[in-house]
Design a protein that fits this description.
mainly alpha; three-stranded antiparallel sheet; 4 helices; elongated
């Protein structure tokens, strides 16, 4: 999978998660011991596991739209992946500290969100920083000059 595929799939995934957060059948009321939020509109747990609220769902929709739009080019996809790696790495760390784990009462970043954000950051870091983006233009014998196919290849080690 290339960086463009990552941006497209991550974008679609986060769009779906953002939409799911607004569907009452997929969300459950927060437990009594859940941290208090200053912004409690739509405060619930997606699938009973992931704490979300209205702002969190909007954030997921924005990230999803960005990923889908970024998938149109390798450079935009790489920028998306690098940015998501840094952003979600920061959200992972914030989720580990009281006060920051609710983004000062605005976004819930605790519980299962911590490992989900860490996983997102790790995968995005791979595609943003480690995966090769070398693109070679290959002309196949017998093809007309106006029909050139582009293949994404990784360099041989």
């Amino acid at each position: 999978m290339g960086v463009r595929s990552f941006a497209s799939l991550a974008g679609l995934l986060y769009l779906v998660i953002g939409i799911f957060g607004f569907l009452p059948g997929l969300t459950h009321a927060p437990p009594v011991e859940a941290p208090h939020l200053a912004f409690e509109r739509n405060y619930s747990y997606l699938f009973g596991l992931f704490p979300i609220n209205f702002l969190h769902n909007i954030f997921h929709l924005v990230i999803g739209a960005w990923g889908v739009l970024a998938s149109s080019s390798v450079d935009a996809s790489r920028t998306f992946a690098c940015s998501i790696a840094v952003l979600y790495g920061m959200l992972t760390l914030m989720g580990l500290f009281p006060g920051l784990n609710t983004t000062f009462g605005l976004l819930p970043l605790f519980g299962h969100d911590v490992w989900l954000h860490a996983g997102t950051a790790f995968v995005a870091a791979y595609f943003g920083f480690a995966a090769s983006s070398e693109v070679k233009r290959v002309r196949r014998p017998g093809m007309k000059s106006e029909r050139v196919k582009v293949y994404e290849e990784r360099p041989q080690s």
